[in-house]
Amino acid sequence: MQKGYRQWLALAAMSLGTFMGLLDVTVVNVALPTMATHFNSTFTDLQWVLNIYTLVLAVSLLILSKMGDMYGRKKIFVASIILFVVASAVNGFAPNLLVLDIGRGVQAIGGAGMNSLAMALVASNFSGSKRGLALGILGSVIGISTASGPLIGGYLVEAFGWSSIFFVNVPVGVLTVILTLVYVNETPSYGANERIDFAGMGLSAATLFSLIYGLIQKEGHNTWAWTDMRVAGWLIAAVVLFIAFIFAEQHVKKPMIDLSMFKSVHLIGTLVVATGLGIALYSFNAFMTVMMQNYMGYSAFDTGVRQLTISVWSLILGPITGMLGARFSKKRLIGFSLFVGGIGFLLFMNAVSTRLSFGDMWPAMILMGITNGLVNPLLNTAGMEGVAPQEMGMASGLINVFRQIGTTIGVVGLGLIQDSRYETYLGAHLSKITGMPGALATTLKKVLVDAGPFAGHGVAFSKRMGHMPFAHDFQTVVLAAYRNSMQGIMLAAAIVLFVAGIAALVLMRDHQESTDVE
Questions:
Q1: The whole model's pTM is what?
Q2: What is the per-residue pLDDT across 46-94, written as a single tens digit (0 to 9) for each?
Q3: Average pLDDT over residues 145-156
Q4: Architecture of domain 1-188
Q5: What is the DSSP string of 210-262?
Q6: Domain segments of the chain as ranges
Q7: Dist. CA 48–CA 57, nearest whole Å
Q8: How deeply is 71 buried, as exposed, middle or buried, from its count of CB atoms within 10 A (0-12, 13-18, 19+)?
Q9: Residue 334: pLDDT above 60?
Q10: Membrane spanning segments where (predicted)?
Q11: Which of 156, 225, 245, 446 sits CB 3.0–4.6 Å from 203 for a disulfide?
């Protein structure tokens, strides 16, 4: 077989691995109601099926990136796929939530290796203009995998049951292992005979664990103040551990991360953009999915189909980003594409109403999709430029870590904005409903705030409320409060993308004008 064909089959293997690893971040969302019935459990307990994957994925990314750089990225990539497939099978057969939670944690370790090393393997298996094209295609896969979770998950759950979202990984994973073993070229084992920086690995893992877990605690308990030690304690620990990590890395002969990498203004700009994407675009998927299902009445599958308006642009634009990046300034393409997404969020904010339809949404969703379809592939390509071969795995890992941290920060931060605006609107308008006693207005406000914006529609349109003489006015206020809260989220997301766009234009460097260290 000609070398060209072997290269593209190698890319297929790395794309499949990335797709599986990232898809499992979101695909479980739509299966939670079915899981709740199957395990006879509460949604609060089931939240850890999601959270444990996010937590372990973030903690493992940098460690597996470093292991790949040291011992060969192909070896660690294949081992990660095998671990992911085995854990997926265990999850599908899980007899209880404890087994499922443990399986999800193990699965996340495999997913971290697949996600962090695929980009570096592409960079080392391709060169010249083909590298830009290949990284562009991989960026498309990253973009579409996150957005297609509701569509794929909705179809699998409705057609085959909740366990199918795990079992489907088995044949796909076996195919990925075969393609990788046959067609992917191994990278040199940089530093295989050197001592492992256990202190750096342990401290980096503990730092990310404390940060992500603290944010998860805040997300799950929005009534807890930031100063509550159940939240603040973890965030303070993250800061202390991060300082200890920096100190340790400065005094190790061969550190886990060469801190001189962060002298590159270009790398800092790349990581700011990755974080901004996570905060604005990827975390917003969760809020939009709930809005379409709980407030607009779409099924999980119908929601996924409509969200193709965003994700399809990754397929359309990803393959051509290599050509665009070779012809035009990457930092300008990234910066102005982020501005397009910001405009999309502003259009969305203006379109939101108590009678929102898909016809009102799609123009904004197209702009958001264009941003996702252009920025992700270009960011991957730009992030690998000027990086030493032995550090490509770590650079890839850092981009993935900051994207993941951004997503977690976005879910928490945007959620707090939503909760605040929702509660404020209810407080200002419930008491004005004609015929509603003041004491009942206070009680209903507490019920709605405790249930949260996601569940407000269910409370307002319950059979019990439907018999109240003021039901229509009450429902109108709840819908308006939710609209107001979503507008706050969209405004915040727009600002984040505008700031990320400015950071790209100011901090990032085009390859011909940059040096590794500035």
A1: 0.84
A2: 778 888 888 888 888 888 888 888 888 899 999 999 999 999 999 999 9
A3: 77
A4: Up-down Bundle (1.20)
A5: HHHHHHHHHHH-TTS-TTSHHHHHHHHHHHHHHHHHHHHHHT-SS-SS-GGGG
A6: 1-188, 198-255, 421-486
A7: 13
A8: middle
A9: yes
A10: 7-28, 48-64, 76-94, 106-126, 133-156, 162-184, 196-216, 231-248, 268-288, 308-326, 333-349, 361-379, 489-508
A11: 245
- Yes or no: say if 318 and 133 are a contact pair by the CB < 8 Å rule: no
pLDDT at 2 over 60: no
Report CA 70 to chain centroid distance, whole Å: 27
Residues contacting residue 424 through CB under 8 Å, at least 6 positions apart: none
Any idea how long the chain is?
518
No. of H helices and E strands in the chain? 23, 0
In contact, 287 and 504? CB cutoff 8 Å? no
Mean pLDDT of 378-399: 79
pLDDT single digits (tens) 18-35: 888 877 777 787 777 788
Which residue do the tokens 């199957």 mark? 38
- Which residues are CB-neighbours of 348 under 8 A, at least 6 positions away? 361, 364, 365, 368, 490
Residue 205: enclosing H or E segment and its boundaries?
helix 198-220
> What does 275-287 look like in DSSP terms, one character per residue?
HHHIIIIIHHHHH
- List alpha helices for 72-196, DSSP H: 73-92, 97-125, 128-147, 149-160, 164-167, 169-183
* Rounded-to-integer distance, Cα 315 and Cα 292, Å: 23
Which residue bears the tokens 């007899």? 95
The residue among 282, 30, 62 whose CA lies nearest residue 164 is 30
What's the CA gap between 233 and 227, in Å, rounded?
8
The span from the CA of 191 to the CA of 69, in Å, is 8
**Tokens 């011909």, residue?**
512
How many C-beta atoms surround the C-beta of residue 223 within 10 A? 8
DSSP SS3 for 307: coil
Q: Is the pLDDT of residue 516 over 50?
A: no
Work out whether the CA dihedral 326, 330, 334, 339 comes out positive or negative: negative
Residue 286 has pLDDT above 90, yes or no: no
Residue 244 tokens, joined: 């200890």
Q: 161 Cβ partners below 8 Å, 6+ apart?
A: 34
- Please give the helix or strand (H or E) that residue 302 lies within, else none: helix 300-306
Torsion angle of the four alpha carbons 173, 174, 176, 177, in this order, in degrees rounded to the nearest 10: 120
CB 111 within 8 A of CB 54: no
